Amino acid sequence: MDYTIRKATMDDRAAIKQLIAESARGLSQNDYSKEQIEAALKAIFGVDSQLIADTTYFVAESESGLLGCGGWSKRKATFGGDDYADRDFNELDPESEPAKIRAFFIHPQFARQGIARAILNACESEARAAGFRSLELLSTLPGIPLYRACGFEGTTQVEYELTGGQKLPFVPMRKKL
Description:
The structure is a single chain. The protein is of the alpha+beta class. The chain has a single domain, classed as Aminopeptidase, CATH 3.40.630.30. The protein is built from 5 helices and 7 strands; from the N terminus they run E-H-H-H-E-E-E-H-E-H-E-E. The two termini are 29 Å apart.
């Protein structure tokens, strides 16, 4: 399959938002209920314009459109899109704090074809070049196999409260660079 990986731009936000919804609904249904997925789409799964502004967010694109997206961050926020109010925009210290891997979503039609791994490799390379010595992320349950295969470790689930009394489990994971 032919695709390119490039830096996301602000003009990509609508397409990224659509991709996130399709990815969450299509790839999370074996791990989360429909109610959890919809609550997450309203609260924490969304476009993070700060990642785009920081030029640390990538999209994988083919002639048919966006196939995937994901990025890394030099900021303290662990997750959350523009609609998530609790993001910390303070910068991390690369000497003592891990960079954050953030907002990975792949279109269900193109899952398990190496796209997420290619985006993750680009993120790791840039974070390393920026002086970071390790990475961390909050993995959705369907993302755990990818991250484990890429050298991330973590097993303990944490839950985040969403609207409507829904809770969404994640697994914090880390990797040394």
